[in-house]
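Quick one, tokens below. Sequence please?
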């Protein structure tokens, strides 16, 4: 576990952030961390009930957040959500594309719908929010896009051809959009988590988890806070000269 006493901090007051997949897991930790540092956070997810819990937790901790129910693959809804956020809070400064799913199976058994669902949510969803947010981010003097990729998109992972391809796609998208938007002072980076303890990895057997820990030089699974702090750093003024970068947060797995 991370040492809870050592917390990265920065001043994001006056800034507006939008985090997809904010109902639970990494997205919730990212949204809470940005709000703790003063950003107003638009929390986006398909899961309305859990989304309300994220917003309530941020409010209880003294932060500002609102919920927007949205499927990241729904182009019209994505544009409408970005418009509503900009109307509500006057702009957008930070976009975190975090919503993602897995549908694991070996390539010989991979069904079309398993492939399409993962590519659509993980890659197309990131594209749709990036495109919709680009104009408002251009109006910010300090725009930030942070995409949550995965080490699977760098090193591959048996049983995850769809997922690895989607995350490699997110990395390619990150590097390209970084070059396209650099002239508008928008930085675009990716965080590539290794194995992090969330609902997504809770489905793995204890045996698999132990095998994973053996492969990780730091000998543990990551904590959502490890990812939330990497995102916070990239969102902060301290990272203003970093763009097109993929920051692995994996306990040394890809070292
Ligand atoms: P999680 O606990 O499963 O949470 C993902 C959230 O995204 C859920 O609230 C989910 O809602 C939401 N979501 C799914 N489909 C959506 C859609 N179409 N539109 C809007 N929201 C949607 O996952 P996590 O572990 O926090 O992962 C977050 C991100 O980190 C993902 O991109 C994942 O690929 C990446 N990542 C995770 C790990 C890890 O070890 N945990 C490692 C590398 C990368 P529902 O569940 O209600 O559908």
């Amino acid at each position: 576990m991370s040492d809870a006493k050592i917390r990265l901090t920065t001043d994001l007051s006056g800034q507006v952030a939008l985090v997809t997949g904010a109902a639970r897991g990494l997205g919730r930790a990212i949204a809470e961390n940005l709000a703790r540092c003063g950003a107003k956070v638009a929390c986006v997810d398909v899961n309305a009930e859990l989304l309300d819990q994220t917003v309530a937790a941020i409010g209880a901790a003294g932060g500002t957040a609102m919920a927007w129910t949205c499927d990241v693959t729904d182009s019209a809804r994505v544009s409408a959500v970005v418009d509503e956020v900009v109307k509500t809070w006057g702009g957008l400064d930070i976009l975190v594309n975090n919503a993602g799913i897995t549908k694991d199976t070996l390539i010989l058994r991979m069904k079309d719908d398993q492939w399409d669902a993962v590519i659509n949510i993980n890659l197309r969803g990131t594209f749709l929010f990036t495109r919709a947010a680009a104009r408002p981010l251009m109006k910010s003097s300090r725009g930030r896009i942070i995409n949550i990729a995965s080490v699977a998109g760098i090193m591959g992972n048996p049983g995850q051809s769809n997922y690895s391809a989607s995350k490699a796609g997110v990395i390619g998208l990150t590097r390209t959009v970084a070059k396209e938007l650099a002239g508008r002072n928008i930085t675009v980076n990716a965080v590539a988590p290794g194995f992090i303890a969330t609902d997504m990895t809770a489905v793995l057997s204890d045996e698999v988890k132990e095998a994973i820990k053996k492969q990780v030089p730091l000998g543990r699974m990551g904590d959502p806070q490890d990812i939330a702090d990497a995102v916070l750093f990239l969102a902060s003024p301290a990272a203003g000269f970093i763009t097109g970068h993929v920051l692995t947060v994996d306990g040394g797995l890809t070292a």
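The radius of gyration is 17 Å. The chain is about 45% helix and 15% strand.
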